[in-house]
Amino acid sequence: MSPPVVTLTIAGSDCCAGAGIQADLKTFSLLGLHGLTAISTIVVQTPFKVHSYQEVSPETLTEQIQVLLESYPIAAIKTGLLGSSSHISAVAAALTGTKIPLVIDPVLSASSGADFGSPAAVEAYMTELLPLALVTTPNLPEALRLLRQNHDLDSERPCPNEIAKELSSSLGISVLLTGGHSVTEGLLTDTFYSRGTTREFTHPWIDLPSSHGTGCTHSAAITGLLALGYDLEKAIPMAQALMTHILTTSYHWPLEERSQEIHVLNQLPPKSANFFGGIELE
């Protein structure tokens, strides 16, 4: 048997396995990939609350990345929760010059409210790590924080096209602005801006109260498809088709809290070409 394509996720570890490293590995496995991990943070959480977290040292994070880069033919890399500015800088230093496609999900807060986006972390993202990426996948609040713009999203409606364009122009990379914070009539729109061109991807809003890990799973799917050789223009809608299926087949535990969990299957649905809008998964 020939070895599988290899991907690397650099992110936090979620003990309830709905987000972070665990969500990324499930997604890579779903696509038939071998997933490697470099853990930045140990997070103690449920879908409702981050109870605590402990960062590994920047030196340990760097060593994980360096050992894996030296030992495996990594085809694509993604980052998720990195934590402090020191960790972001360490990742940037370790990845500089690698030429491997890099997807950055700039996790600045958790779904349950924990904040990871200090001014120093935002600065490190903007000046050191994000310029190395092929694409970044922020949601609207994350993009606004990266641009240092203050908006009350309950009363203001900043234009996603303009936000994606401004962030892309500032960094010189492609931006996929995810649309979960701007749902209209049951639909949400992801905005992709690259090299002067805007493309919108509209799909149904699937309401799963208390779910978490959607951003991790989505960016991991894009990373995995890039590793398999698809370009961004194909990888993005394929990843969204995968997300739609995952969300519509998710489950909840029979607990009082009614915790909703994303269910990443261990195999693709039958007839994957039809599933991915006519694109054959190689």
Pick out its properties.
282 residues; alpha/beta; UDP-N-acetylmuramoyl-L-alanine:D-glutamate ligase; nine-stranded mixed β-sheet; two-stranded antiparallel sheet; 9 helices; 11 strands
Structure description:
By secondary structure, the protein is of the alpha/beta class. The chain has a single domain (6-151, 158-275), classed as 3-Layer(aba) Sandwich (UDP-N-acetylmuramoyl-L-alanine:D-glutamate ligase). Helices cover 36% and strands 23% of the residues. The protein has helices at residues 20-30, 58-71, 85-95, 119-129, 140-146, 160-171, 214-227, 232-248, 272-275; strands spanning 6-14, 34-46, 49-55, 74-79, 102-104, 135-136, 174-177, 187-194, 197-204, 251-252, 260-261. The strands form 2 sheets. The chain has a 9-stranded mixed beta sheet, sandwiched between helices. The mean pLDDT is 86.
Outline of the structure:
With 282 residues, this protein is an alpha/beta fold. It has 9 helices and 11 strands. A hairpin with a 2-residue loop joins strand 2 (34-46) and strand 3 (49-55).
